[in-house]
Automatic annotation (TrEMBL):
It holds the Pfam family CSD2. This is Ribonuclease R. 3'-5' exoribonuclease that releases 5'-nucleoside monophosphates and is involved in maturation of structured RNAs. GO terms for molecular function: exoribonuclease II activity; RNA binding. Residues 1-21, 91-115, 783-826 are annotated as: Disordered. It is found in: Cytoplasm. Keywords: Cytoplasm, Exonuclease, Hydrolase, Nuclease, RNA-binding.
Amino acid sequence: MEPTNPPRPARAKREQPAPAPITQELVLRAFIDNPDKVLAYRQLSRRLGVTTKQQREEIFGYLKKLRQLGAITLLQNDEYRLADVTVAPVPEQPAKGKKPAKAGAPTSRAASREPVAEFGQDPIVHRRREAGFDYVGGDSRPSRDANTVIGTVDLATANFAFVIPEAEDADDIRVFTDQLKFALQGDVVRVRMRGSRDGRPVGDVVEVLKRQRPEVVGRLQVQGTLGFVKPDNRKMYFDVFVPPHSLGDARNGDKVLVRIVEFPEDSHRQPVGEVVRNFGQAGGNEAEINAIMAEFGLPFEFPSEVEEESEAISDVIPESEVALRRDFRHVTTFTIDPADAKDFDDALSIEKLENGNWEIGVHIADVTHYVRPNTELEREGKHRATSVYLVDRVIPMLPERLSNGLCSLRPNEDKLTFSAVFELDENGKLYESWFGKTIIHSDRRFSYEDAQERIETGEGDYTEEVNTLNGIAKKLHAQRFKQGAISFETQEVKFRLSPDGKPLGVYVKERKDAHKMIEEFMLLANRKVAEFVFNLKKTKPRYTMVYRTHDAPEPERLQNFALFAQKFGYTLKLDNPKKVSTELNTLSEEVMGKPEQNVLQGLAIRTMSKAIYSTEPLGHFGLAFAHYSHFTSPIRRYPDMMAHRLLEHYLLGGKNVPVEPVEDECKHSSAREKLAANAERASIKFKQVEFMADEIGNVFKGVVSGLTERGMYIEIESNKCEGMVRLSDIPGDTFELDKDNYRIVGRGSKRIIQFGDELEVVVKSANLLDRTIDFDLVDNRPDDVKRREAEERKAQRNAPRGYREQSGGGYKGGSKGGPKGGNRRR
């Protein structure tokens, strides 16, 4: 029987509109529009029209980021409210009769109406530590009581810095980054002492007295109209907010230099900056190399007045100047430099004397003849202090007209020089030394390869002269090591580059006899110049001079190195200071060609003190010289120019020079040298990462060069590129760091991997933006073991959730509910 009321036909389903996208700006806007209200997750969901699981997850993510930013505060459970202080990136139009608010100034919750953008990846803004962990609360106004110390900031990690006190005998003070008041590298600060932790003084910055360089280089991230710069320097502990009107032409993903224009008092906020230079999209060669230059404060060009001064210098040598100099133009003279060099600092002359000895001249470009005191050239050279050699370019200390032209000892040209001339026999015995201004005419420009060919084959022009010099150099070398010189050398990485700067190959520069020959004569000149000035006056105060000094290593560091070397089977007796060089040289010979060579030699060098410039004649431990200076490279090093001026002054009978100004210039030059070395390493690392980006999936042999709790560093033998294998990615076991024995140990298998072990790795990734390389270990276990492990992992994945076995033993039960569900007990 048919029903009296037949069913209605089914309605056609109406297409549901796609849910509106949820953004971080929308979430923050809900709080900004309700500055005094407490909003729970459910209220936010209703206000924003949340309908899907994906949208709910997005809200949770945004709430977490906004908490990290310090924009909102978690009260309890899932209830939030707007934080007390935020950033007003765009000034609003002021009401009539009122002054406009300054961009980026602190404002109340109710006054702020602009959303805060995403603060980059893994933001570190509110860096509050747990109670009792040296956290300073309450009043933190600047204090000048006896419990404060003035010092210079040295950033160590993103978590803490050291403040180096002005007093030389005081210990460095550790300051955690949430108590640095946004101080940067090199800033002068006042620190309030807070006791000690782990035996080291701990304090908090209460006042930044002098900001050295308030600039940051990093990648710009833009959301909406707001920008944040995430610094390239991993020691940087904050990002920089850039308001819309300060972005210029920079876009999302560009590498930029930003100048900080406002440092907030409140650590919950971010410094405010403006883009002053845009390098282009991050990852490109020009963008990254220029960013490295900006990061280390290297100049991009010479000021116009400096260029004008250099162009105005005459290239004509007047006869009146020649008459004041010793003339070497008739003596066989040549330069030996890298094949791609353009600035030739030094030349060698050789002439046989009637008594059978050799007169060998070390002729150095007379830069100070052209660069006069109180000129723009002098001021710029003093500021730069050194040329910087990045992978694909040179940042010269002096303009090209001087460095590659007037001062460069080019062949077949008369050149003005400052010379050290020695009478030596074929056994390297020194009879006479002479120092003074000269003029030379180079007969030949050799590359190192050209000179090496004459040494190895005995054929070609000037073969007799080159081999005579090489023979004497070998004798000088032997004398140095007999006196206690140390032979450890770092390996120099070089690149073959395409015209657009892309690395086509990486290799280690090989030092042959031609390199060592030039080095020995430069060392001889530097040593004898230092000895000459030191001996001009037999009583204190000695004549002021620029010395290159190198202290003996600290006994504790030597003993630590000896313990490390012992792990590789090498016994070192380093408790006798007189035997240190002998022991280290013996080790250097024993490790030659072995997998651990580079690791041990590198660590030995790091064990040594750093060489610096000083007016104190303290000697050079590594070279075993009682007195040593830098005289031979004035085109690229300002201390050499200083040494030239002082030596000329004393040769002309001048009185002693005040020590303080010279010592200040020595300290400045040492600091600039360190900065240049760091910039050069950064450019090398970038090119290594760029090179390895084309090697993804390829297998290389490497050695363990470092160990941390996160992973082990592997240095590839063939190209010295270094990357990390994460401990969690090592197949077949769970590995843990045994830092006391410089190794990692498998928890189950007890497999040991230590420094210097040879391993095969496959290139996993190469991140140009972070300048990091990741490796995976090549899994050489039997195929049946790999299959069994894969099957166990598959079975574990397919097991019921409540009964999946966890690594480390036991079973983990599931939890129900959404964000508030599950067992919250800790």
